[in-house]
Amino acid sequence: MEYRPLGRTSEKIPVLGMGTWKIGSTRTSAERAAQIESLKRGLELGMTLIDTAEFYGDGASEQLVGEVIKSRRDSVFVATKVWPTNLHRDDLLMACDRSLKRLGITSIDLYQIHWPNPRIPIRETMGAMQELVTAGKVRHVGVSNFSVEETKAAQDALGKSELVSNQVEYSLMNRSIESGLLQFCQRERITVIAYSPLGRGSLPTRMIPASVLASYQMTPAQVALNWVTFREGVVAIPKSATRKHTEENAASLRTRLSKEDYDTISGVAN
């Protein structure tokens, strides 16, 4: 597994982690067991960044992640997110405590604002984030779905700590961050965490030339993940609810696309 720095810190995180949207809210015990097996297999393969959120399944995702990491906390980088209605100081502090309890941990490695909320002053929110860092309940602070201007405001408001990441949608299907946000984050050394890197499961194979698939002996999904994480400062968190898909995702980085093939795919998908 490849590793990249988290923001300007000395922390290293895997280029491929695991997302947990819709994981945890299960209809059957077999479905839940498959999700747990998938996450555990991902950890075995080096995908030790797990991203969740209090919003996912109204906390069910955090609870499932807590079950998965219970016996291996020290080897897992846990990221979770606070919902935008909980960004007033007191609400945020309580939300963090609830997430810690569901996850069964004493410190969140990366605590992120899930979406911006213009009705709540960013300085109040970031002041609370800094309190959590000072208290040892949060190690690093990030945002999610923030524009360039919103990221700048959050960065400026945080104070002593560094804003380390911005989690945004990025895939061959959605390249909107390339119009400025990606460049800003790279310049400021803010890690881009790409969610839905496989285009929400609707990746058209026409976007990846057959010659590239044959040359690298990869599936379209594997090439797509390789493409998304080609740039420095970008990591991805594909979701997988089955062991098979997790193994397929992990194998996507067994070799790297050449710059020529990266540019070819970029041109086709543009």
Assigned CATH class: Alpha Beta
**CATH level-4 homologous superfamily:** NADP-dependent oxidoreductase domain
The shape, in one word, is: globular
Task: Compute the separation of the termini in Å.
Answer: 28 Å
Q: Helix segment count?
A: 10
Please report the total strand number as a whole number.
Answer: 10
SSE class: alpha/beta
Following the backbone from N to C, one meets helices and strands in this order, namely EEEHEHEHEHEHEHEHHEHH
3D structure, described in words:
- By secondary structure, this protein is an alpha/beta fold.
- The chain has one domain: NADP-dependent oxidoreductase domain (TIM Barrel, Alpha-Beta Barrel), CATH 3.20.20.
- It contains ten helices and ten strands.
- The strands form two sheets. Strands 3-4-5-6-7-8-9-10 form an eight-stranded parallel β-sheet, covered by helices on one side.
- Helix 1 (29-44) packs parallel to helix 9, helix 3 (89-103) crosses helix 4 and helix 4 (122-134) crosses helix 5 (148-158).
- The longest helix is centred in the N-terminal third of the chain and has 16 residues, at 29-44.
- The mean pLDDT is 95.
